[in-house]
Amino acid sequence: MIKWLYHWLSQKLRWVNIGLAVVAYLANLLLLQVFCQPVTWATAVLVGFLGAFLGWPWLRKPVPLLRYPALFLQGVGLLVCAYCSWFLGLSSYILSLVTGFLLVPLLAWVPVFFAAQIVHRARRSPLPGARAVVAAGMLTALPVVAWGEWQYQQVVQAVRQVPPNQHDRFLALANVLPRSYMTERLVGIGFRYHLLAEYIYDGWRPPLHDPLVNVLVRWHGHHPIPFHSLNEQVAMYQQLFPGWPVKADCVCAFTYDGRSYYRWRPGIDSWGPPDAALNPRQ
Predict the structure, then answer these.
(1) What parts of the sequence cross the membrane (predicted)?
(2) Which end of the chain is more exposed for a tag (fewer CB within 10 A), N or C?
(3) How far apart are CA 210 and CA 194, in angstroms?
(4) Long-range contacts made by residues 168-171, C-beta under 8 angstroms, separation at least 24?
């Protein structure tokens, strides 16, 4: 009886996982948007992970050779689940337990539920070296974070070359800052990229989400480039990356808590995001 029940639940679990993924996506899009639009590489990672995770039950017999890359992608997925849980924060999980009767807050546990299944699959898989493949997927984060930290420190060193009281500090910074991936992300925080979970109905929503930059800035605890205003930050972005769009188009900009961002005119309107967007630990 127990074996039959376990088998029955295992067969239904594939549909439960698909349902949870769809519901979580729709809830984030239509009800309470916590995660904004992921940047291109993050979208590719997310799609690859979900494809491998949700498709795993169908890979057992027809295409066994695909199970190793699927396990690898699920190892990457463990990092995705861990990041989502970290981004949501402990307070979100406490709140979900208190307000769980509303159902939507319980979706915060979806990454935890998916991660537990990945660990179970790695432990129970009959494939030789299954655990090592999952671990290899997790280790892919190390060179990526190392590369991001290297570029982050380049920005820090460039800022240190300019004295804080230099009268032409803006131009001096523009001359020394590297035109790199990390510089573009750091200068764009607050009007292109966001760092924190949703400011509920505060009228501002930078729509792009870059997990790498989020991790590095929150790890270091401060924004490495000093800005006096949002307009100055926008001007720096346009100086360093001419021709690049200052505003990012996203469906969330049309929602109630994104209307101010949608109406915002870069370089003209001074209204911007809360100060906490640039100082995540304050």
Answers:
(1) 15-35, 41-59, 71-88, 94-116
(2) N
(3) 8
(4) 170/232, 170/235, 170/236
Buried b (16+ CB within 10 A) or exposed e, 154-189: ebeebbeebeeeeeeebebbeeebeebebbbbbbbb
9-18, 29-38, 195-204, 254-263: the lowest-pLDDT one: 195-204
Predicted model pTM = 0.82
The count of other CB atoms within 10 Å of the CB of residue 219 is 11
Nearest to 234 by CA among 206, 195, 196: 206
Chain centroid to CA 66: 27
Pick from 74, 68, 24: which is nearest to 49 by CA? 74
Phi, psi dihedrals of residue 65, rounded to the nearest 5°: -65, -20
Tokens of 115: 């991660």
pLDDT over 60 at 240, yes or no: yes
DSSP state of 252: G
Q: How far apart are CA 73 and CA 184, in angstroms?
A: 28
Amino acid found at 45? V
Question: How far from 76 is each of 42, 46, 73, 94, 222, CA to CA, in Å?
Answer: 11, 9, 5, 26, 27
Token pair, residue 199, equals 């400011």
Alpha helices in 2-39 (DSSP H): 2-30
Stated length of the chain? 282
Rounded CA-CA distance 278/267 in Å is 18
Residue 249, classed as helix, strand or coil, is: coil
| Bridge partners (DSSP) listed for residue 189 | 193
Type of residue numbered 4: W
CA nearest neighbour of 175 among 164, 185, 161:
161
Alpha carbon distance 278, 227 (integer Å) = 9
